Amino acid sequence: MKSGELVYVGVHSVTAMVLNLEEKVSKAILFGSDRFVGEGDLVIQANALVRVGVNTGLLGRVVDGLGNTIDMR
């Protein structure tokens, strides 16, 4: 596992991105609800790094960190 990698957490497979890996603790950002994630849940590697696709349709738009448009256009 490496920093920036996508993983699936728990029985509901909540998507997350690994931030750092330490010997006893690893940290990740959840891209879904934290209600479905608990201590001791199984984490499965997605074997993919986080990527945000962009194209000319995003020119002049306001987007969040995941590339989702957030303006009212």
Continuous helix count: 0
Counting DSSP E segments of at least 2 residues, the number of strands comes to 4
The biggest sheet amounts to: 4 strands, antiparallel
Q: How are the strands ordered across the major sheet?
A: 3-2-1-4
Q: Report the average pLDDT across residues.
A: 86
User: Could you give the distance between the termini?
Assistant: 39 Å
Shape: elongated
Low-confidence stretches: none
Tally of domains: 1
Radius of gyration: 15 Å
Helix content: under 10%
Order of helices and strands: EEEE
Structural class based on helices, strands and sheet pairing: mainly beta
Strand content: 25-35%
Description:
With 73 residues, the chain is mainly beta. It has one domain. Helix content is 0%, strand content 34%. The chain contains no helices and four strands. Strands 3-2-1-4 form a four-stranded antiparallel sheet, with no helix packed on it. Strand 2 and strand 3 form a beta hairpin. It is elongated and about 45 Å long. The model has no long low-confidence stretch (mean pLDDT 86).
Summarize the structure.
The chain has strands spanning 5-9, 14-21, 26-30, 43-49.
Provide the descriptors you would attach to this structure in a database record:
single chain; 4 strands; 73 residues; mainly beta; 4-stranded antiparallel β-sheet; 0% helix
What is the secondary structure topology, with strand pairs?
Blueprint: E1 5-9, E2 14-21, E3 26-30, E4 43-49
